[in-house]
Amino acid sequence: MLYGAEMAASAPQRPSLRSKTVPLDDYGDNFERPAMIIRDGAIQDVEQMSAFLRQLTASGKRTSPDDEAFVRAHYIEDPDKVRCSVAEADGVILGFQSLKRAGVGNKWGVKPGWGIIGTHIHPAAARRGVGRALFAITRKAAGEAGLSYIDASIAATNPEALAYYEAMGFRTYRTPEGLICKRFDVSV
Ligand SMILES: CC(C)(COP(=O)(O)OP(=O)(O)OC[C@H]1O[C@@H](n2cnc3c(N)ncnc32)[C@H](O)[C@@H]1OP(=O)(O)O)[C@@H](O)C(=O)NCCC(=O)NCCS
Question: Measured from the CB, is residue 2 less than 6 Å from ligand 1?
Answer without folding.
Answer: no
